[in-house]
Design goal:
The chain is α+β, with helices and mostly antiparallel strands and 215 residues long. The chain folds into three domains: 1-90 and 188-215, no CATH class; 93-118 and 155-184; 119-152, no CATH class. It is 54% helix and 16% strand. It has helices at residues 3-24, 27-30, 63-88, 95-117, 157-184, 199-208, 210-213; strands at 34-37, 49-52, 121-134, 140-151. The strands form two sheets. It has a two-stranded antiparallel ribbon. A two-stranded antiparallel ribbon has the order 3-4.
Length: 215
């Protein structure tokens, strides 16, 4: 698989691990709760009644298998991460560093673009102003008046627009280089199951093959 596929598979493994963690973290899933209403003690002619709480998951009868799968997925993710690190060593750029930097370039380009779109303006808003005066009785009261609002930019628009253009150009160039790395860099990892498999499918496969072989 290439680096792009490896990242996708890495995300898949994390989602599966999150699913397993969610199942195992709820007490209703990992315990069986019986509630017995001791009615016979109160009324001799009535039998006790026992009910069982319903678990939150369909995997309540496979909790051990889910726990074993979680450990397997964690080990698999460690191996994939190691393979990705090895593949990155042969790249001509600092892949992780450039991904982070390019995100900042794109953010700042948007910021400067917004600044460059701001215009100086002047507008009169009727009745939006206010003041104080004394009335005939000598009391201080408020009154309404028009409000003139003047907006003036206090930066060099041309310089800011140039910043935005340069950042966009640099970000596009780096993105193109990163895309080449994603497609052309091989990662020495053989996926044991398809990236599109569901949690149920992976659990069934693992229980029937991997876990059975290690039993």
């Amino acid at each position: 698989m290439n680096l792009k596929e490896a990242f996708r598979y890495q995300n898949k493994l994390q989602r599966l691990m999150d699913d397993a963690h969610s199942i195992l973290s709820r007490d209703r899933n990992i315990t069986k709760v019986e509630n017995t209403h001791l009615r016979h003690k109160v009324m001799a002619e009535v039998d006790d009644e026992t009910t069982v709480d319903t678990p939150d998951t369909e995997y309540a009868e496979q909790i051990t298998e889910v726990a074993i799968l979680l450990m397997y997925l964690l080990d698999l993710r460690e191996k994939l991460s190691a393979a990705i690190r090895t593949a990155k060593k042969d790249l001509t750029i600092d892949f992780d560093g450039e991904v982070s930097l390019n995100s900042k370039r794109q953010d700042y380009a948007k910021l400067f673009k917004h600044m460059g779109e701001i215009r100086s303006s002047e507008v009169v808003m009727p009745g939006m102003g206010s003041g104080y005066r004394f009335n005939a009785e000598g009391n201080q009261v408020t009154y309404r008046c028009d409000l003139k609002k003047v907006i003036t930019i206090n930066f060099d628009r041309n310089k800011v627009k140039k910043f935005a253009a340069n950042l966009n150009k640099q970000a596009d160039a780096v993105s193109a280089e990163l895309d080449k790395c994603l497609v052309n860099t091989e990662v020495a990892f053989e996926p044991p199951f398809d990236v599109n498999d569901t949690f149920a499918e992976v659990l069934a496969w693992h229980t029937e093959t991997v876990a059975a072989d290690n039993a």
